[in-house]
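Example record

The entry below shows one chain as it appears in the dataset: sequence first, then structure tokens.
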Amino acid sequence: MQSGRIDVAVHSLKDLPIEQPDGLHIAAIAGRQSPADVLISRAGHSLEPLREGASVGTSSLRRKVQLLLTRPSLHIGELRGNVPTRVAAAHEGRYDAVVIALAGLVRLGLDHEPGLYEIPLSQMLPAPGQGALAIEIRTGASTLSRLLKPLHDENAATEVSCERAILKAFGGGCRSPLGASARCEGDKVFVEAFAADPENGKHVRIRRNGSNNAALELGLEIGRELRDGLNT
């Protein structure tokens, strides 16, 4: 886009760095899919019925840490590839189960696959921005910005700005063992966040709520609390 070959880029927001490259900015946050993660297994199990020592595939440190907090006996294996490849790893028995973002399944029309179990947020908080699409353009493209405005979802933008502020204040990148969920209800935003130190097993979980208008500041405050909580 910086070279002018394209005018618009659409990204999964959770994979974007916190700071945008010079000359680019996010013009719109499209309506958000569910930020939840799902467990896929041939039997459609939740986490609890999985056998002792069951193998679960995920390449995410955030997911690994939270899985082991709920079920310490699980064996977590690396899982890479596109979404259909990851789904097949469970259905073909290469793993007893795999964990994938629900939004990715929805966008590919795979959310009705057999064996899906939506993991509750009490057990698995998503990555900041998970489920949201970011529409990126060059800075100064005012006509294009106006054309994209109808695609912008203000509630989704408030939620993800809060979640990404948590990540920014915490000081990690998109692969940090940190989960965050912000949910707008009326003029309030309800936030839950989690961070862990995989080396010593320490983890911190915080719940807060505040005004939608102060969502960014609330996110920064929570991120600092998570960071300080792991360092004390």
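Notes for this example: The first helix runs from residue 61 to 70. The longest strand covers residues 188-196.
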